[in-house]
Amino acid sequence: MTVYGIPNCNTVKKSLDWLKANQIDFEFHDFKKKGITTEKLNEWCNIFGWETVLNRKGLTWKKLTKEEQAAINNQDLAIAYLKENTSAIKRPVIEQNNKAVLIGFDEDNYLKTLI
């Protein structure tokens, strides 16, 4: 299992704490340090939808002008933006067997999917 995120994100911290408490082994991929590929972003967008992968609640998104936000209106544009601004990726993304199964943190979904 791989957990994608950034270590100083509160939602990622909650997720990692939950995984550790439930004794679930994982590898952590810090996409601030290691980056993220266009292919991986496309995979996630195809599974969750680009509007879910794009974190519109975060500070990175909110720093954009209304015009800049409005201009990101399809998957290709969202992926281009996310490649350059990895902090705007909704996190964490959890993959099992190289396939994304969860995005964000919701304990009920974690229980259903991972246990």
TrEMBL record:
> Which InterPro entries did the record assign?
Arsenate_reductase-like, Thioredoxin-like_sf, Tscrpt_reg_Spx/MgsR
Pfam families cross-referenced by the UniProt entry: ArsC
Which SUPFAM superfamilies does the UniProt entry name for this protein?
Thioredoxin-like (SSF52833)
- State the source organism's domain of life: Bacteria
Q: Which PANTHER family match?
A: ARSENATE REDUCTASE, PROTEIN YFFB
Q: What name has this protein been given in UniProt?
A: ArsC family transcriptional regulator
* Family indicated by similarity: Belongs to the ArsC family.
